Every structure is written in C-alpha cells, then in structure tokens.
Amino acid sequence: MLEHYFTCPYCWESISMMLDNSVSKQVYIEDCEVCCNPIQLSVQFSAFELIDFQADSIEQ
C-alpha cells in the first residue's frame, strides 16, 4: 500500500488516500474526506511504483 496526497477537484483541499500498488491499473470512485463529493481516481503502477495518478470530478 502507498499513501498518496492530492487535491480534491471540488473543494481544493489536500487529502490523502491509501493506494493498492499490487494492482497495476485501477479506475474507481472514492468520496472526498472533506466535502464528500465523488472523485474518479485513475491510478497506474509499474513495478509497485506510481507512474500515473488522476483525480477527476465525475460531473459533466
């Protein structure tokens, strides 16, 4: 597991999440710890190292 800090695309607060680096490619939705809005997370690892991370609003 890897702790990763990023900025919420809704409230702009800095938050952290634990990421599972045993799965190379992941896309899932988590709620912001501060404002509770849903964030789509796209995560990619290579050899257990984080190589890509995106946190996007799911609103159109």
TrEMBL record:
InterPro entries: zinc_ribbon_bacterial. This is CPXCG motif-containing cysteine-rich protein.
